[in-house]
Amino acid sequence: MAYLSLKEINKIYPNGFHAVHDFNLDIEKGEFIVLVGPSGCGKSTTLRMIAGLENISKGEFYIDGKLANEKSPRDRGIAMVFQSYALYPHMSVYDNLAFGLSLQGIDDEIIDERVQNIARILGLTDYLDRKPRQLSGGQRQRVAVGRAIIRKVGVFLMDEPLSNLDAKQRVTMRSEITDIHRKVGATTVYVTHDQTEAMTMADRIVVMKGGYVQQVGTPYELYFNPVNMFVAGFIGEPPMNFISSPVTDGKMTVGNKDIELSGVLSEEVIKAYEGKELVLGFRPESILLGERENALSFEAEVQLTELLGDNTNVYVTLGNDSPILKVDPHDTPKVDSTVTFSIPLESAYFFDKETELVIRKTN
């Protein structure tokens, strides 16, 4: 296991493009960290700087307290799993797993023992004689993971390893990688654009946008206490609903209804935002049907429903906004009907429209 520290890390390419800005993160031994964000946010570039595949333009990177900026990838004690699997097509599964150990001059008996053990952990024992082309996508990814963990290094880096798998295989591999991490205990940094992977796998999540870190926290912290609208909208499926309105006489207007902010926000905040835009945020799954006490209640027109089995997504029109409600499938309203729903006060978020920073958190 290894401890990693990234201090003011920047990546600036020769053409002047600034891909990563002042990235700071301390990673504990054995921790599973997920870097998540949209394409081009700098997450893969950050991973490649940790691996030594990209030079660090500014900042300091430490492994176990020792400066590692100039260390070669080979000397960093790191193993990487790529999106493309990067298996040797002419080699069997056994030889793909054993290849790195053979280059290190490890004794054949020890190699065989390690290969058999890894194959047993990953469910590959019956496939050791097969070539990669004879395997499914999920099986190839297991081989790629196995080739990394067989080296017994302190740090695993994974760059969108599940992106080439179908939906069912992704769910299976998520749980398998999490289980492997639990058994092996190595420090893991995992990159994905899929927030579901981040929420289900990570000890802590790093949300990135435009090369900047937006928030670092546990899945619980990011879901319930996002620091800004980007994090609030990125974490959660469907994403958080946002409805903006200027504050007039201490009230916001949502649809055709005025919301009295007194008792919801402090008087100091209400005065500060008089005449300014405020954003109400609420998660689709946080609403309750009907009018409720200690809640913000609204009437909306139902435009579309999506039955997903365990729940129904209900697309509604509320004034000029089109929020999504998540309801029990047995309570699915009819299209073109009017539905009344309530947002419990403890589930209502408020954001500054200009800065997009949160004003009021819940939990």
Description:
The protein is of the alpha+beta class and 363 residues long. The chain has 2 domains: 4-233, Rossmann fold (3-Layer(aba) Sandwich); 240-360, Nucleic acid-binding proteins (OB fold (Dihydrolipoamide Acetyltransferase, E2P), Beta Barrel). Helix content is 25%, strand content 33%. It has helices spanning 43-51, 93-103, 108-122, 137-149, 167-184, 195-201, 219-224, 229-234, 267-272, and strands at 4-12, 18-27, 32-36, 58-63, 66-67, 78-81, 155-159, 187-192, 204-209, 212-217, 241-246, 251-254, 257-260, 277-282, 288-289, 295-307, 312-317, 324-327, 338-344, 349-352, 358-360. The chain has a 6-stranded mixed β-sheet, sandwiched between helices. Strands 15-19-16-17-18 form a 5-stranded antiparallel β-sheet, with no helix packed on it. Strands 2-1-4-5 form a 4-stranded antiparallel β-sheet, covered by helices on one side. Helix 2 (93-103) runs parallel beside helix 4. The chain is elongated and about 80 Å long.
